[in-house]
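lol so apparently i was supposed to do this last week
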Amino acid sequence: MPEAIVALGEGKRIVGRLRFESDGRRQHSQFEYDAAWLAAEDRFALAPGLPLREGSHFSSGKDDKRSALPGCFADAAPDSWGRALMTKALGGGLSEFDYLVLSDDRTRQGALRFLGEDMEPLSDLTPPIPRLVELERLRTLAQRFERDPSGAEEEARDLAGVAGSLGGARPKANVEGDGHLWIAKFTSAQDTKPVERAEVATLKLARMCGLRVADARLELRDSDSPIALIRRFDRRGDTRIPYISARTALDWQGEEGGFYTDIAEVIRQISSKPVEDLHELWRRIVFTILVSNKDDHLKNHGFIYAGGDRWRLSPAFDINPSPSRHRVLETGIIQGGSFDASLEIALEACEFFDVKRDKARQIAHDVATTLSGNWRRAMQEEGMTGDEARLYQDAFEHSECARALGM
Ligand SMILES: Nc1ncnc2c1ncn2[C@@H]1O[C@H](COP(=O)(O)OP(=O)(O)OP(=O)(O)O)[C@@H](O)[C@H]1O
Ligand SMILES: [Mg+2]
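anyway here it is w/ magnesium ion bound
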């Protein structure tokens, strides 16, 4: 039975042991906290669904392979982009455990580490972390792999380690520069719009609208496939900061979308600054509606560890305006309610987020005013032409926006 010592941070603090079993069709795992961790003064539960106690926590992947691991470990494993690279580089037949422990240890999401009995990382994909000056080379490798995955074994081998460790579907790599770790998000071969210019512009707009946002800037701006550089918020110098997705914080199983009021409930339970996080989340809902971000699923929200068994809502990331007639969210606003991207519903929900009605209207009005006054310029500042910016007009100018401006 494959197993790993689970440790935290640069100091490899042992927190427990993960055992994994696969009988072909079914995969399951068993995690047990270490006795010394359970007794430690600075202990904390790796996730709300993995409470501190003796004995085994079982996870079974009968219906959904990914639930073969507890959510906090699944959060540290690659998604479709990284898995495609790893499968090509290492060969097929990889289990959920393989994807988790074999991906690069240094760039893995959060602070979790998966070690062998010798206390060394089990991952065997450990080329040096590329520097910012290597972005162009990485972009070429990623493009070749995207265009023809079957013919790009060598590219996959080069990329699978540090480029394949993070979650998400878009092509990306980790890079080091200016003393920080960054995610480089590449323009995809499938993009029909300047997606990465829009992503950087939108994160900058989010900051202007008062949100806490990951630092972002555009690289290779003058080329036709620019790269969005997003600073990793789960690193502080060499320190690794534990991270869980909102999906894990909610202990959410299955494929259907969750709800923002459920995230609010979790914030009340685990946040070190619940009121600030509730206000922040409500403003994010408003921003998401007003920029027509449709990709607000539960893995695009998360929490970073704040010490003392408390968490903070992580900085906002992966917010992308996508003009479309169907204005729906992936995360519904009110538990059990509709998934419409509706400001009316957001206002109805404001008290769940500790925001008073009048204040809520004021916030919606302010966010809409900032967006309508700045979105086009923000896009052009990231190098879009007037015609390219116009492709995003319907994402920023729509009925909800008009409603907010009228408040
Ligand atoms: N600034 C950041 N710091 C640390 N981790 C991050 C940061 N931004 C994103 N992540 C993590 O990396 C994952 C992938 O990033 P991101 O969501 O931007 O990629 P994506 O491929 O666009 O995702 P999706 O599949 O949702 O479109 C996120 O789910 C999150 O766990
Ligand atoms: Mg994402």
